[in-house]
Design brief:
The chain is an alpha+beta fold and 747 residues long. Helix content is 54%, strand content 14%. Strand 11 and strand 12 form a beta hairpin. The strands form seven sheets. It has a five-stranded antiparallel beta sheet with strand order 8-9-10-11-12. A three-stranded antiparallel beta sheet has the order 7-4-13. The N terminus is likely disordered. Helix 7 runs parallel beside helix 17, helix 16 packs antiparallel against helix 17 and helix 23 runs antiparallel to helix 25. The chain has 25 helices and 18 strands.
Length: 747
């Protein structure tokens, strides 16, 4: 009976757990010396089986890497024609002829080879205008708001219609809650969602500022203007470090800390290989990004989390391949650096779907379900060695790429650039200007016909020179018949007219760029109305490009940053149900002429009561319209919240009209009290006179009143009439004041 059959009948390791067996397999020989021979034989068999299984797994992983390399080569071959067009666009932007045209011009013995770089001028003007609209003052061009919940809004509106003390049954147990408590609770939920949205907005804005998003975006826009497509990648977490200075008195201590905050990068379109059959990045099955790494950069990759150090060590054992790349060589030729060697390693970064079996081969445990599609990120060397394999770190399974096209192609992810749009007119302008220079050179002097049988130069040089001596061959010949002059007609004005017309057509094709310039601006810009119309037309034309950037870059990129923070950020105060809003088109308020409209708007809105924060937002918009940095001039969001709490909760200001009414009513009351006092004094005086009369005539007070009663009645009646008249006048005056206050005519 063989050893294998014996082991099958009775496994000497039976009863041991997997952890115990793994510990035995990793033990040293000295530790295993005391074990029985049958146990050692079984351990050797397990090692051999594990080695075979690992070799098979490595072969499958290598096959996956070879598949990525093969896909890259296929996509690279499929877009050769597209890259040829990109080379032409770049040469046109750089003011260089195509190699075939340049060779034909160089083979001519006479003629101009000048190139008029009108394409660069147009591209730079439109690019500057677009970046100025998108990033006028380096302020964020997006907003993050809480997601509106229709049920909450409707519930709040319905509860607000009920009396505050009305009881509403809520919950499954039918518990009744006052309507006022429902309104208050819903408002608290909405205020909490708003606070979280504002916190997330500040967090994403801070992350983009640290990533230098403005500069990265401008690089992508430039590539889109030249060859038609710009690519941004984010959020990307790099193993970066940041420096922090700790100040202790007059001394400082530098601390280098690991920085794992997400960032954004610009990916060269030349190194971006999406699914060539897709019409948009959202429909792309997978994307491959090409990296060229030096030996030092490859060694640093081993320090990055997730990379296989042994695989990188295996790749570094061989020198980097210098594979010829015609496209890269043409780019260097266009920049004047042809012949430069590039000893770097080619690394392919793959984003796309993989099978669950392939993930298990890479050591990633996933459930076996044919309905699940797994997104993975792979880093593969040029020979197919897999350096890193991870599941897509985003739970949303979103890939990190955003693609912007100047002019979209309905059948391709890659679009057309402004350099391509002016291609024909650029060729016409160059041809006409070269022809004008050639005609100028030919028409500057005549064509000379010489009869060599009559005259010859003494120095043997058949050229026109000053004070040159000629010898008559025939003595009786007429020297005037030895030379004939033929003038070539000048067509300079016609050829320059063609050039000017082609230049104008380039401006027409590229858009209303003349209204965006300075010294070449047309005369109608001298008037305010003409300038306003021109700038409005330019903004309408640019609005399409701004909207494309909002849809294809801002919305998708910021949404991925929000998703990353929702998944990985430890800050609970920024997490909520959020909605990303792109605000690139609102930056068009930055256009010239809007500051006057903003000033008029602020003047009209000054009398409308509104929260303090809205006032600050109006001032920020006004600052943008005047090309000022609102960040430096106005308080930030935290300061605005503190100031708003004091201002919005302060008692309402005193109305001067109401104060005038109160003062007038006080004056009337003072006069009424004075009249009552005068009436009391008059009555007291009458009583005093009656007492004097009684004393003078020796009568009692009652007898005096009886004798002079009629006079007293007259006095009392007169006093009563005066009191009633005063009361009537006061009531009429109060009514008049109330009517005037209601009608608004003033006092």
């Amino acid at each position: 009976m063989s050893v294998d059959e014996t082991l099958e009948e009775r496994d000497p390791l039976q009863g041991l757990s997997e952890d115990d067996i793994a510990a035995l397999l990793m033990a040293e020989e000295e530790q295993l010396a005391a074990l029985p021979p049958e146990v050692l034989d079984r351990l050797d068999q397990l090692r051999e089986e594990a080695k075979k299984a690992d070799d098979a797994r490595r072969e499958r992983v290598q096959a996956l890497g070879q598949t990525v390399v093969s896909t890259y080569e296929q996509r690279k071959a499929l877009r050769q024609q597209l890259e040829t067009r990109w080379h032409e666009d770049i040469r046109r932007y750089n003011g260089q002829y195509d190699p075939e045209v340049l060779k034909a011009l160089q083979n001519r013995k006479y003629g101009s080879r000048m190139y008029v770089p009108l394409t660069r001028r147009v591209v730079n003007i439109v690019e500057a205008r677009l970046t100025d609209l998108l990033f006028p003052t380096e302020e964020r061009n997006f907003a993050i708001d809480p997601t509106p919940v229709p049920q909450l809004v409707n519930a709040e509106a319905l509860a607000a219609q009920l009396p505050p003390d009305a009881m509403v049954p809520m919950g499954p147990d039918g518990q009744e809650i006052p309507a006022s408590a429902i309104v208050l609770g819903i408002r608290e939920i909405r205020e909490d969602a708003k606070a979280k949205a504002e916190a997330m907005q500040r967090e994403v804005d801070d992350q983009l500022r640290q990533a230098n998003y403005g500069a990265v975006a401008r690089a992508a826009i430039h590539e889109a203007m030249v060859i038609g497509t710009g690519v941004l990648k984010g959020p990307v977490v790099l193993n970066r470090t940041k420096k922090v200075w700790h100040i202790d008195g007059a001394t400082g201590r530098l601390e280098v800390m690991e920085d794992l905050s997400p960032t954004v990068e610009q990916v060269s379109t030349w190194d971006f290989f999406p699914d060539m059959s897709a019409s948009s990045i959202r429909r792309s099955e997978s994307e491959i990004e090409r990296h060229y790494k030096t030996k030092a950069e490859m060694a640093r990759l081993a320090q990055q989390p997730g990379f296989d150090k042994e695989a990188i060590r295996q790749v570094l054992q061989n020198p980097p391949k210098h594979s010829p790349d015609a496209n890269r060589d043409q780019l260097r030729e266009a920049s004047g650096t042809q012949g430069v060697t590039d000893p770097r390693y080619l690394i392919l970064e793959y984003h796309g779907p993989v099978d669950e079996e392939q993930l298990r081969d890479m050591g990633i445990d996933v459930p076996e379900d044919p309905l699940l599609c797994y997104e993975a990120v792979l880093f593969v060397a040029e020979d197919g060695t897999v350096l890193k394999a991870i599941i897509n770190p985003m739970d949303t399974q979103e890939r990190p790429y955003s693609v912007y096209c100047w002019e979209k192609d309905p059948g391709s992810i890659f679009g057309f650039g402004l350099s391509y749009e002016v291609k024909d007119m650029a060729e016409v302008s160059n041809s006409s200007f070269r022809a004008a220079l050639d005609n100028l050179g030919l028409s500057v002097g005549p064509q000379i016909v010489v009869n060599s049988k009559v005259m010859r130069p003494l120095n043997g040089q058949w050229t026109i020179e000053p004070l040159k001596l000629w010898e008559m061959i025939k003595a009786d010949a007429d020297a005037r018949q030895a030379f004939a002059f033929f003038q070539i007609d000048s067509r300079l004005s016609e050829l320059l007219g063609v050039f000017d017309r082609s230049k104008q057509m380039i401006d027409d094709i590229a858009g209303p760029v003349m209204a965006m310039q300075g010294q070449e601006a047309p005369s109608y810009l001298d008037t305010a109305r003409g300038a306003s119309i021109a700038y409005q037309a330019a903004n309408i034309w640019m609005r399409r490009a701004v909207r494309n950037w909002d849809d294809d870059v801002t919305s998708t990129l910021v949404q991925r940053f929000v998703d990353w923070n929702m998944q990985y950020s430890p800050k609970a105060e920024i997490k909520g149900d959020l909605l990303v809003m792109a605000r690139g088109t609102s930056a068009l308020l930055e256009a010239e002429g809007q500051s006057q409209k903003m000033a008029a708007f602020l003047q009209q809105a000054s009398g409308v009561p509104m929260p303090f924060k809205r006032r600050i937002n109006q001032l920020r918009a006004w600052a943008r319209s005047m090309r000022l940095d609102a960040v430096d001039l106005l308080p930030d969001d935290a300061e605005v919240r503190q100031m708003a709490e004091k201002i919005d909760n302060a008692p309402p200001p005193v109305d001067p009209a109401v104060e005038r009414v109160k003062i007038r009513q006080s004056e009337i009351a003072d006069k009424e009290r004075d009249r009552q006092f005068q009436a009391q004094m008059a009555n007291a005086n009458a009583q005093l006179r009656m007492a004097e009369i009684a004393s003078r005539e020796g009568l009692t007070r009652e007898a005096a009143e009886a004798k002079y009663g009629i006079e007293m009645l007259k006095i009392d009646a007169d006093l009563q009439d005066r009191r009633e008249q005063r009361e009537h006048d006061a009531q009429a005056q109060n009514a008049e004041i109330a009517v005037k206050m209601t009608a608004g005519s003033g006092l």
